[in-house]
């Protein structure tokens, strides 16, 4: 049987890894897929570099449209990235009747609804395991392995750059800016690290996972996003003293509790996580996703979230899936977002004001009597109860002190109102630091 013919758009880090792993493991992959899979065409603007990677194993062109126009190409792999030309090429491939494999989380988080609808109309598959958590097969787990379950919540460390920075800040007590420079020198962070450190990359991935978990359209524009650039080493130290570690989490959670509007929380922000949780002990540039489901309980998926060959592993797994299912009736294939297209949910994404969680607050206050009582009174008026209090000498002078408060769960709206009242106290000498806390139990 003739091998499946694949066209590869972009042969950078992930593209070269995909080509090399597919070539190296071709016999093993053929045994699993039931048919050979080979990359026949490669499109990249740097054709010289592309030829150095592929040798005489594939045709190299500079025009990606030539790959899509080739009638012999069965599957197109899009590894260009971004929202612009990548979207045009993916839509053109769909219209040409090609199946598409992509690692482009930004594209799917923003334009996924349109792309999946177009693919459904044309009867082609869009596979995107590599778009979330690199080599961890989290899409397959959510879409297939946990299909019998009602997903309650997902919490993931899904950006290796930020996890590396937080791990180094905790281990070495260094400030954020210094560790960021270290991450850049080691190649963990880009020259412009904004998407990573401000939580945008993690929000792209959380958006995709939320759509699969709950059968809702991808809605990146409704995600709450807060990064790690304002975190201070002293808060990481205080969290450790209280039995917590700070992690940047992407969270998707179904809410239907009494007194709350039913909907989906979709948020990315730093969290205090109890240090006894496995996910709190994920260090360096590694990724991990924790899922709570009604039948199976808690499951944890851990591994390399980026890199040439780990991500290539996910890309090739998608190629094998497409090869196995190409001849299947489109109605019998696994739906792109797990739920059948005519059975999608209209559950709303909740605003942060509607989120109910607990908090870490650090206040720099005047070292005088009655301060804690005033703060506790304001919190009580907002129906916020205190879980723990820690007091430490202030760093600037003996006339001030750091007051750390852990609260029980409350509405974010109520916390915002309470913080505004507390900030107005003359005894509060600096902006309040607020970090959300997730027990993940």
Q: How is the topology of this model organized?
A:
Layout: E1 4-9, H1 13-24, H2 26-33, E2 37-43, H3 47-54, E3 59-61, H4 64-69, E4 75-78, H5 85-95, E5 99-102, H6 105-122, E6 126-127, H7 138-145, E7 151-157, H8 160-172, H9 176-185, H10 194-197, H11 200-214, E8 224-225, H12 233-241, E9 244-255, E10 263-274, E11 286-293, E12 297-304, H13 308-325, E13 356-366, H14 371-381, E14 386-393, E15 400-407, E16 410-411, H15 412-423, E17 433-437
Parallel strand pairs: 1-2, 1-4, 2-3, 4-5, 5-6, 8-10, 10-17
Antiparallel strand pairs: 7-9, 7-11, 9-10, 11-12, 13-15, 13-16, 13-17, 14-15
Assembly status: single chain
CATH homology-level superfamily of the largest domain: NAD(P)-binding Rossmann-like Domain
What is the tally of helical segments? Answer: 15
CATH architecture of the largest domain: 3-Layer(aba) Sandwich
Number of strands: 17
Overall pLDDT metric? 95
Could you give a quick summary of the protein structure above?
The chain has three domains: 4-135 and 308-342, Rossmann fold; 139-304, 2-Layer Sandwich (Dihydrodipicolinate Reductase, domain 2), CATH 3.30.360.10; 355-437, ACT domain (Alpha-Beta Plaits, 2-Layer Sandwich), CATH 3.30.70.260.
Word description of this protein:
- α5 runs parallel beside α6 (105-122).
- The protein has 441 residues and is of the alpha/beta class.
- It contains 15 helices and 17 strands.
- The chain starts with a strand and ends with a strand.
- The protein is 37% helix and 25% strand.
- The strands form two sheets. Strands 7, 8, 9, 10, 11, 12, 13, 14, 15, 16 and 17 form an eleven-stranded mixed β-sheet that branches. The protein has a six-stranded parallel β-sheet with strand order 3-2-1-4-5-6, sandwiched between helices.
- It folds into three domains: 4-135 and 308-342, NAD(P)-binding Rossmann-like Domain (Rossmann fold, 3-Layer(aba) Sandwich), CATH 3.40.50.720; 139-304, 2-Layer Sandwich (Dihydrodipicolinate Reductase, domain 2), CATH 3.30.360.10; 355-437, Alpha-Beta Plaits (2-Layer Sandwich).
């Amino acid at each position: 049987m003739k091998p499946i013919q694949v066209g590869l758009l972009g042969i950078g880090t992930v593209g070269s890894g995909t080509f090399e792993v597919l070539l190296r493991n071709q016999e093993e992959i053929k045994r699993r897929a039931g048919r050979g899979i080979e990359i026949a065409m490669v499109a990249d603007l740097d054709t010289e570099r592309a030829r150095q990677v592929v040798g005489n194993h594939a045709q190299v062109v500079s025009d990606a449209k030539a790959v899509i126009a080739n009638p012999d190409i069965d599957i197109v792999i899009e590894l260009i990235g971004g929202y612009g030309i990548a979207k045009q090429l993916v839509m053109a491939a769909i219209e040409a009747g090609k199946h598409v494999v992509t690692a482009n989380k930004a594209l799917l988080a923003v334009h996924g609804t349109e792309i999946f609808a177009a693919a459904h109309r044309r009867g082609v598959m869009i596979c995107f395991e590599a778009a979330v958590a690199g080599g961890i097969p989290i899409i397959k787990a959510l879409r297939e392995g946990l299909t019998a379950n009602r997903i309650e919540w997902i919490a993931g460390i899904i950006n290796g750059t930020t996890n590396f920075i937080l791990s180094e800040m905790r281990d070495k007590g260094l400030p954020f800016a210094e560790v960021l420079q270290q991450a850049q020198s080691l190649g963990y962070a880009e020259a412009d690290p904004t998407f990573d450190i401000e939580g945008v990359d993690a929000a792209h991935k959380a958006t995709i996972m939320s759509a699969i978990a709950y059968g809702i359209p991808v809605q990146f524009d409704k995600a709450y996003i807060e990064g790690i650039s304002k975190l201070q080493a002293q808060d990481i130290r205080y969290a450790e003293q209280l039995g917590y570690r700070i992690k940047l989490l992407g969270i998707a959670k179904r809410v239907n509790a009494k007194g709350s509007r039913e909907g989906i929380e979709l948020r990315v922000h730093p969290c205090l996580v109890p240090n006894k949780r496995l996910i709190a002990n994920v260090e360096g540039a590694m990724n991990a996703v924790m899922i709570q489901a009604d039948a199976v309980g808690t499951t944890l998926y851990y591994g390399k979230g980026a890199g040439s060959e780990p991500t290539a592993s996910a890309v090739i797994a998608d190629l094998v899936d497409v090869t196995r299912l190409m001849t299947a009736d489109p109605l019998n294939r696994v739906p792109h977002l797990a739920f059948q297209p005519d059975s999608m949910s209209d559950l709303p994404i909740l605003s942060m004001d509607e989120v109910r969680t607990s908090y870490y607050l650090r206040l720099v206050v005047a070292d005088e009597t009655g301060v804690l009582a005033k703060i506790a009174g304001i919190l009580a008026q907002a129906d916020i109860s205190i879980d723990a209090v820690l007091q430490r000498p202030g760093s600037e002078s003996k006339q001030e002190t750091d007051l750390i408060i852990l609260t029980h769960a409350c509405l974010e709206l109520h916390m915002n109102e309470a913080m505004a009242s507390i900030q107005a106290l003359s005894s509060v000498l600096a902006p309040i630091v607020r970090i959300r806390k997730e027990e993940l139990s």
